[in-house]
Every structure is written in structure tokens, then in C-alpha cells.
Structure prediction request, 772 residues.
Amino acid sequence: MENFDFRIPTEVLFGKGQIEHLADAMRPYGDTVLLCYGGGSIRKNGVYDDIQRVLKGFTIVELSGIEPNPRISTVIRGRDLCRKNQVKIVLAAGGGSVLDCAKMVADCAVNDADPWEMVMNPALIHRALPVFTVLTLAATGSEMNNTAVISWPEKKLKKGCKSPYHYPVLSICDPSYTFSVSRRQTAAGSADIMSHIMENYFSRVEDAVIADELAEGLLRTVIQELPKALGDPHNYSARANLMWAGTLGISQITSAGKKGSWSCHPISHELSAFYDVNHGESLAIITPHWMRRILTPATVTRFDRFAEKVWNIQEEDPMKEAEMGIDALQAFFASCGLPSTLREIGIPDDSLAESMTDEAIRMKGFDSAFVNLSREDILGIIRDSL
Amino acid sequence: MENFDFRIPTEVLFGKGQIEHLADAMRPYGDTVLLCYGGGSIRKNGVYDDIQRVLKGFTIVELSGIEPNPRISTVIRGRDLCRKNQVKIVLAAGGGSVLDCAKMVADCAVNDADPWEMVMNPALIHRALPVFTVLTLAATGSEMNNTAVISWPEKKLKKGCKSPYHYPVLSICDPSYTFSVSRRQTAAGSADIMSHIMENYFSRVEDAVIADELAEGLLRTVIQELPKALGDPHNYSARANLMWAGTLGISQITSAGKKGSWSCHPISHELSAFYDVNHGESLAIITPHWMRRILTPATVTRFDRFAEKVWNIQEEDPMKEAEMGIDALQAFFASCGLPSTLREIGIPDDSLAESMTDEAIRMKGFDSAFVNLSREDILGIIRDSL
Prediction:
């Protein structure tokens, strides 16, 4: 098992009605709040009204219209609102995109460095406004982690920025706020959750027994609960287990003792930077193809474990068992209505892969991933996914 | 799933050599340290020397001789040392008993209330010195939780005291410090770990899917790794997985979304208060008898799950399958050299159970446990365990 530093500074208030505790938790930090949200779904699902009600007495400035794959230009808009209104607290109400944007706004409000330079070099972040979140989508785990993923579409860039200042102070995770999430977003969010778990699960460390056990348990949970949530969007128990799986799935719970870079997320980020596609959907499409490409006699043991423990498959021939596990994953995604080809989500060809520079590939750290991916491998995965 | 508040203020530095980071972490809090330890094992296993080396420049006052089932008189001795020497930091080096004593010393040093009154009523704890720990035994999970269990042997009292001030600031968990732990203590510590997990696992909440999955994963980990550690005490990987299982086993990871009181721990604490027995050994003895007593058609489903998921047992008759799971637990404890009767650990009869007052039983909260235990049930469990 690798050495690790386990530290979760975020408090999570989980469950129905927890928003009633929000004002008390925020008050010590000030009374002027930047409320960050997206395209307006929080006005329909009751979250906006709940926030206005519980934050009576606070001055609320609004940053609305945060897009999926949040943009650096939106971050700058939020930064300017904070500075103009002397905002003391950033409150994000939404899914991962809103939370990520809010984290970066909280940085930019109180640091002088150029916003995109901070995304590229988190060492420039020396302080941040306190961030609170009200989660409305089970997916990215941003509610309890240190990452913000920001895009600069004009330059075809999308980058994850990790900073100790990116842990929210407190996150309200009320599963009933996800009742109105569409089938499509519910499935895509779950594909993202599963990908986070699998990115750590497929690593070069073999003796982090606990991280592996917990990863398998979380994967089985999503596989069991997602169809329930799709069948009955108001199933509280299913929504609750998906939401908590999303939070833990990218926490240190599944990475403690493991090491190495991820594989599918960097490829997906590149796809999003070029085509602004849905993150979870792109992961559902490329993950099985990544698996087939790296399945060899050298990796078959881990894939067999994945097939047996996650999909309950028993087959004597190891290579066949491994393939059956990958088939099961692909079939599960399809059964949840997720797309299976990049063309379905608007990516017509592999020109993007051709345009990736050697430097871009090097920066993504594929050489420390479970299996080192070359330019040809990445190109092949994208072609296979078309 | 029940609502919960997930909050882990403690940072854990896990792995070989992490003690090198201790001084830097402590320095902001002051330079006068109370070093708490037990019977001197840290002088043999290298921990004492490592601490003296890395804390060069700090003034170190020593509280040694902390006993298993740490006593309130020892807490008072530590408090007086802190006050006399203007101690700013409490550093515990040892297992759960040392850590628990150190937490309570840190309270008493800076609060005026009577020490035992604070144990009984944690609301009297309004502040505490910062606590750091260097763990040398995988067992109680005290290194990342808010509990301190303190005894008053003259009054036959043993009580767990939970306070938000009881979270250590930072814990060094280096599995190689457990290489020298005896077979007996290794097995007893693991029985304690398994008991923590099972106390939450057997609860009235059935839809906390993730807590259950994680509990089963941690139990399987201990079942797999403990024999390896007993067979080869220097097996780093086995020691590491046991140590991390101990930390997570009593964390909010396995309780989030569950609810209810525990059953075997309160009985074990009563046994310890009267007879000063080894905590883990007493849990290994009574847990299977508790299980047999509460196994009924109303609880059989949970026991079947336990048998199937933890012990890989498949049997058609549900009651038989449940019993086979309990048998497997009992056989596992025996195979690890743990005692199977209370007489073996020095408890001659059930007179203790007779002397438990109704008030003592009421205070232990058995009425909100998985199955409500009456005085007769408790007496029966102790008799069956003799």
C-alpha cells in the first residue's frame, strides 16, 4: 500500500431538510453572499426558494447562467461581482459545473494572479473566499473534493485545478433535490461516478485491499440503485445512495493507498474542450473501449477481479472472463439509456485526436496510468468510440 | 437512509516514515509537549527514539505508565503535569488506551470542571489542548474519532465520552510500528475492529446500502489480512490493511446513514469495569452469543446477508444459513487464538450481571439497539459466554 495523507476538511450535511442548517453555518463568515447557479433548474426544483427563505437577512448577489463545462469568462464575471459587492461567502447551488465555477470564483476574488494562470498553476492560489454548496446532481463529487474543472472554449482548453483552498467549508446534500433531475442527466452523472471509481481501481498498486473493496462496493451500489432512480425518480433511498456514492466515489476513500494518473478523464476533458460534450456521456462511451485496448495477459487479473466482484461473472478462461466484465459494463450503460458512440453526441471524426500535441499528451501523465497510453493508443480509443 | 453529518476534522498521515512530518505539523501549536505512553513498549519498538529525534528543540514532559482501560487517576496525573509545565500540545504514542487517556488529559488541562464529571457529561468540555497521535496498535480507531473511554476501577465504572474536542489534530499511522505487536494483541485488536463494524452493520436501517457495502468490505479485509499478520508479523501490507481498517471501521464511513445504539460494546465495557479484562478478547467471546440470542425470524435476513457477503456461505434454509455465519465468526476468532469463554479471561461467574442496576442498563441505550436487550437478555449473553 502506498503512503497517503487522508484529510477531508469539508463537512457534509446529508439528508432531507438539511438546508435548514445553512444560515447558522454561514453566518460566522459574513452576510454578503454570491449565489452561483446554472440555467435556472434551481428555480424549478425549489432550491432557489429554499435558499432565499433560509438566508433571510443575508445580502445575496447572483451569478446565474453558469454553463456545463464552466468557462473562465464566467469565472471572471463572478470575480468582478465579488469585488464590486464586497462578497464574503460564495454559495454554489447546482451540480459539479456550478460548484467548480464557484470554487474558482472564490479564488479569483481574493488573489491578484490572472484567472487562467491560476487554473494552470494552483500554487498561485494563496487564499480563497469560503465556499458553501447545495448539491442538486449526483456526479462529480466536487461537493467534498479539492478540484475545479474549468474550460476556455476559444482556446479549446479544459483543465482540472486542484488546490487545498477548493474544499468547500460545508455542503448540503439533500437527495430530494435530485428528484427532478432528468433521466439523461441522472444516467450521465452515474457514469461519471463509476468512472471516478474505476480510474483509481485500475491502478498499478495491487495491495490496497481496502480501497479496492470500497470501490467495488460503491460500483455495486450504483449498478443497483441507478435503475431504481431511473424507474422512479422520486425514490429517496435510491437517490440518497447515488448521491453518497458520488461524494465518496472521488474522495480519498477510494484512492487511499493507490497511486497513478487517470486515463479516461483526461481523454474526456479533451473531447469536451473541443466539442463541449456531456462529460458523463463521453466517459460512458470511451471507458469500455479504453478497457478493451489495455486488456492484455499483463492486466487480465485486475479485469477478472472487476468481472467477478462487480458484475458477478464466473468464467474459467481469464481473457474471456475479462471481456465479459467489459461487455457487462457497456451493456449496463446502454440499458440506462446512455449513448454508445461519439457520433451520437456530436463528435463526427477523430480530427481532435490528430490535433493533440505531444506536449498536451505528456501533461496528462498517461505514463503513470494503469497502462501507459501512447498517442496511437489515444487515437485508437477515440476511433473505436466513434 | 438516515440523515447524517459527515465531518472528519483529523488529518491522517499514513505509511512508513510519516513521523518525519510530525514536528512541522506540531510547531504552530507551541513547543512544550506532554508525551503520553503506556508500559514502555514504545521504548522497544523504536517509536520513543523516533519521537525524541524528530521533536528535537521541543520541551517534552512525560506521562508514562498509562494502563489498558486507562483510569481517571492517570488522567488527573496528566492534567497536573500539563498545568505545572504549561504544556501546549498533548502527544499520544501507543494504542487506543493511551490515545483515549491523552484526549481526556487535553480536556482536563484547560477546563475547570471535575474530570469524571466531564467524562459523564461532555457538554462540560468547552476547549482542549491540541492532540497529536502516533499509533502503535490497529484496534480502537481512536486516532480518527471523537471518543475517549475512561475507567474508574474503584467505582467499577467505565464510560465512553464523545466530544468534538476529541478529534486529534493529526495522527501518524505507520504500519511498521505494529510489527512488534504480539499475536495476542494483534488478534484482540482485530476483534475490536470487527466489533465496531458489526455494531453498525446490525442496525434497524436497511437501506444504507453504501455503509453496508463498506462494512462488508472492511470485514472481509480483516478476515483476509489478520491471518497473514499473525503468520508473518513483519508483513507490511497485512499490517497496513489492518491499521487502515481499524481507522475506517469506527469512522463515519460505516455509520453514515445508519442509526441506533450498540450492543456488545456496552456489555464489554461493563465486564472491563468489573474485571479489567482485555476489551477485544471480551468482544470476541460475547459477540457470537449476542448474535445467537437475537437471531429470530425477524432478524434472520440481516444474518443471512452477513453469512453470504462476509463469509461466502450459501445455504438454502435461512435460519441454518444465519447460524452458519455465526459459527464462521466464532471459528475465525478461535483460529486466531482468541479465547472463547469468559472464564479463560478471568471472569468466574455472572455475579456482575446480577449487580447491574436498571439505571445502568437504561443508560446504555439497549432500547435503540438492533434488537432491544432486556436485563434477562444481558444476563443470558454473559452466562452463555462463561
Q: What stands out?
A: The longest strand of chain B covers residues 4-14. The domain at 186-385 of chain B is CATH 1.20.1090.10 (Dehydroquinate synthase-like, alpha domain). The mean pLDDT of chain B is 95. The beta strands of chain B are 4-14, 32-36, 59-63, 89-94, 131-135, 147-152, 157-162, 170-173.
